[in-house]
Design a protein that fits this description.
Helix content is 43%, strand content 9%. The protein is mainly α. The strands form two sheets. It has a three-stranded parallel β-sheet with strand order 1-2-4. Strands 3-5 form a two-stranded parallel ribbon.
Length: 155
């Protein structure tokens, strides 16, 4: 806040002008058009900075928010930023307490030993053509596979 004041940045003005987040109505419309939405945390933290208890609370609260406010019948979650350094115990609790049915992260094309957790390829920040990016990711995957580093291992 102090730095924003010194730089004369008004966050409310920015949010009103650029509207970087979807509204409830836009989210409802997206679901009605057949898209699947899920929780993404309540405070958008780096999960590796949180205690296990905080990780579970962020996940559970965000998934429940989506179920309660958008009347969805599934429990999906996608990590903000990354699932880097999130241990297996987190996923064990998610499954045991039935907090999620499916979860996603963004480590690219990699295998994960958690059966309901999938790594995905982020394309939103790519300046390259999508096809070229996908080819590059597969090339990287096969290089990692040759070095036996294409699988995410957790504690």
């Amino acid at each position: 806040p102090k730095l924003a004041e010194e730089l004369e940045i008004n966050f409310d003005d920015f949010l009103n002008q650029y509207q970087p987040y979807m509204t409830t109505k836009q989210l409802q419309n997206t679901i009605q058009r057949g898209f699947t939405l899920g929780g993404h945390s309540m405070n958008h933290p780096y999960y590796y900075t949180l205690s296990l208890q905080e990780q579970i609370r962020e996940t559970k609260d965000s998934v429940n928010y989506m179920i309660q406010n958008f009347n969805i019948k599934y429990k999906a979650f996608s990590f903000p930023f990354t699932d880097y350094k999130v241990d297996s115990s987190f996923f064990d609790i998610l499954k045991k307490e039935n907090i999620v049915d499916i979860s996603f992260a963004s480590a690219g094309i990699k295998k994960d030993h958690i059966p309901f957790h999938f790594q995905r390829l982020g394309l939103e920040s790519s300046n390259q053509k999508i096809k070229k990016t996908i080819y590059g990711e597969y090339l990287y995957y096969y290089l990692l596979k040759k070095m036996k580093k294409n699988i995410i291992h957790r504690k």
